[in-house]
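TICKET: design request
STATUS: open
ATTACHED STRUCTURE:
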């Protein structure tokens, strides 16, 4: 079959760009893809690639799939989805940051208001009033955008919907009980297991993976590791882009990494930590990579993290903050057998949800299904 994938592509700094290549490789031999990418992307070797701006009406005659996430790199994808429709893989069920930024850039505030009214109905005026307030700070503004999740009219533009977590499926089923929401497995990259680096003789590493944003709860995590250092000699490694520079010698920031270097950094972790705020609902590809590597992880009990079996992570209430994170990290440092067992279950869980044959069957069913 032939199909069009409208998606970010490398070198755009978003996980959706890398995930697109996983979709293309998984389905190669079954689908003749054309990938359409926004400004800032580049062609990849897996298939024919064209800029979204060059698409014509004829390109949309067959099966069309969009990857949509809460990233500025998805603006052109969302505009095309709104205009043309098609099947959608939503990596995130809150696109509020993106939709509001698009309104700021274009001045199309009526379109933004329509998105809000599609999701909030009679509460829309209250949401619009809250969002119209002047920002006190970037973290405060970010928290408002997360407090009021927004998908708006985009679900209505989707002829079929797929997501990557049970949490996302439940939210969309609640918003659109008449729709079938497909829960897809998470596609692994095609690098295989990365060899663990030789020990460097330094202290154990507590690791954070992925890109910084204000919902990642950096303050609580760094404070927890600082407290842990009173009991265990450890260091903190933030693998990914945008993490704050602190000047502390025991904190290392890598900046943005290639897939291979990112995986190598995760292999340095002894214990991972991710204490995302209760307002975060995105599917965490970085956490999937941590589970794949069999690393024990301390997580907040929020969003898609709730989908992971209790035996495969150490989950704590988000409200427990730095104190709760410290206690959980100390427990794993004090109990290496418990940490090892959690890491083993994490690897088993990832293997189950990313089984290649299961994922291929899910994708072909999604592509071949009649549009709703």
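STATUS: resolved
RESOLUTION: sequence designed for all positions
ATTACHED SEQUENCE:
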């Amino acid at each position: 079959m032939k199909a069009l994938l409208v998606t970010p592509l490398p070198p755009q700094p978003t996980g959706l760009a890398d995930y697109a290549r996983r979709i293309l490789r998984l389905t190669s031999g079954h689908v003749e893809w054309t990938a359409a990418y926004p400004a800032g992307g580049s062609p990849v070797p897996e298939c024919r690639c064209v800029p979204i701006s060059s698409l014509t009406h004829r390109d949309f005659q067959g099966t069309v799939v969009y990857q949509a996430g809460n990233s500025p790199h998805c603006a052109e994808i969302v505009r095309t989805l709104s205009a043309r429709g098609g099947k959608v893989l939503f990596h995130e069920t809150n696109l509020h940051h993106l939709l509001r930024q698009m309104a700021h850039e274009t001045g199309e505030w009526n379109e933004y208001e329509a998105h809000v009214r599609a999701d909030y109905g009679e509460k829309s005026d209250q949401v619009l009033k809250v969002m119209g307030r002047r920002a006190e700070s970037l973290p405060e503004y970010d928290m408002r955008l997360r407090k009021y999740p927004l998908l708006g009219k985009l679900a209505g533009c989707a002829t079929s919907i797929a997501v990557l977590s049970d949490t996302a499926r439940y939210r969309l089923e609640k918003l659109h009980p008449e729709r079938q929401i497909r829960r897809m497995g998470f596609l692994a990259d095609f690098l295989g297991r990365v060899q663990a680096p030789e020990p460097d003789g330094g202290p154990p590493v507590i690791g954070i993976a992925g890109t910084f944003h204000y919902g990642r709860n950096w303050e609580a995590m760094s404070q927890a590791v600082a407290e842990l250092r009173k009991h265990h000699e450890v260091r903190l490694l933030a693998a990914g882009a945008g993490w704050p520079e602190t000047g502390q010698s025991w904190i290392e920031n890598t900046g943005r990494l290639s897939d291979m270097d990112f995986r190598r950094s995760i292999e340095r972790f002894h214990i991972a930590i991710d204490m995302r705020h209760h307002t975060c609902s995105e599917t965490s590809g970085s956490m999937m990579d941590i589970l794949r590597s069999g690393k024990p992880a301390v997580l907040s009990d929020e969003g898609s993290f709730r989908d992971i079996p209790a035996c495969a992570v150490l989950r704590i209430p988000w409200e427990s903050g730095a104190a709760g994170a410290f206690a959980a990290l100390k427990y794993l440092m004090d109990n290496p057998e418990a940490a090892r067992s959690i890491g083993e279950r994490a690897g088993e869980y990832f293997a189950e949800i990313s089984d290649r044959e299961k994922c291929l069957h899910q994708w072909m069913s999604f592509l071949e299904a009649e549009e709703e």
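CLOSING REMARK: The radius of gyration is 21 Å. The chain has a mean pLDDT of 93.
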